[in-house]
Each structure stands twice: as structure tokens, then as C-alpha cells.
Amino acid sequence: MIWLRSSVVLLLFLTLITGVAYPLLATGLSELMFPYQSQGSMVKQDGQIVGSELIGQPFTKDIYFQGRPSATMDYPYNTMLSGGSNLAVSNPVLDDEIKRRVEHLRQFNRQPNMPVPVDLVTASASGLDPHISPAAADFQVQRVADARRLPVKAVKQLIRNNTETPPSEFLGEPVINVLKLNLALDNLQKKKQ
């Protein structure tokens, strides 16, 4: 009977330490040291939350840059059902989907002969990626500039200003957060008016 009592005491002690004390300490320290990140890296404009730096959003209007396709269920960028399509490279369904996306992007961006960057036609593993490559942004420049009646040079400068480069080449490739780029476009448009 003594072993049962000591087992229960140990279970309660470890539950308090690992299930209560440690999570409270970790949460408190993250709130104190990294308040922006611990709250989900929420992006605000004019005092309103417009999204998160960490999760892509569906931009469908021609005045905005579009991100990677989302493979989440029910609706694009659904955080509750994130995940890739799990279609193999050899799967004809994936081939058909990519061909359909390429054709749509060429028509939407009025670029019939330009190669479409791979990140504009393939979903990320989570289906929530908020970034695109500089090549994917360049592919869309003319459409966005025309739709907003902005000089292509100004839109390209915004792309350069919003390109995040890793500290070293072997740590990743340059990327652009689509939400931040589109907010920068909105701000540029406001300044011009």
C-alpha cells in the first residue's frame, strides 16, 4: 500500500510541475520577452488586426499580389485543417491541378509566355505559407502596377523593400511576406491620393 501512496504523490507532483508550473512559466516568459510573437505575430493597420505574419491569406483581387495556393480543406488557409495535399509527384491529379493553375496564372497576370514560378502553383507542406519568392512577386508586378495605376518601378521598389533575406545563403532563400507587401501597396496608394 505504501508504493501506491508514493506513486500517487509522485504523479500529482509531476503533474503540477510539468502540467501547471512549467506551462505557466514558459507562457509568462514568452509574454514578457517576446510579446509580439507570443500573441501570434498579428499585423495591424489603422489599429485593426488584418492578419498574421505567419499565416497566408487568399488575395484574389488584381490589385494585390497573390500567395502560394493553399491545400487546406473547406477554405484556403484554414488553420484548423492545415496540411499538404499529399499527392505524389507522379499522381496525374497533381499534374492536372498544376496545369490548371499555370493556365489561370498566365491569363490572370497577362503573361502568356513567361514561365510561372513553382511557388505560385504548388502548395506548401502546411498549406498556410505566407511567403512567396521574389520571382513569384516579379511575375505579378505588371498586373498589380496596371491595376493600381502605379509605375512598375515603384512596385518593384516595394518588392525589394519587403524582401526578407536570410543571414546566410545556406540558411534559406529570400522571401516576401505577401500580407506585408500588400499592406505596403495600400499605404503607397494612400500617399499618392
Question: What's the topology here?
Answer:
Blueprint: H1 2-33, H2 35-38, E1 42-45, E2 48-52, H3 92-108, E3 131-132, H4 134-148, H5 152-161, E4 163-164, E5 175-177, H6 178-192
Antiparallel strand pairs: 1-2, 3-5, 4-5
Helix pairs in contact: 4-5
Proportion of residues in helical segments? 40-55%
- General shape: extended
The sequence of SSEs as H and E is HHEEHEHHEEH
User: How far from one another are the termini?
Assistant: 80 Å
- By secondary-structure content and strand pairing, the structural class works out as mainly alpha
Q: List low-pLDDT spans.
A: none
Number of helices: 6
Strand content: 5-15%
Strand order, largest beta sheet: 3-5-4
Task: Average the pLDDT over all residues and give the rounded result.
Answer: 90
The largest sheet is:
3 strands, antiparallel
Number of beta-strand segments: 5
**Total domain units:** 2
Rg (C-alpha, Å) = 22 Å
Concise synopsis of the structure shown:
The protein is mostly helical and 193 residues long. The protein has 6 helices and 5 strands.
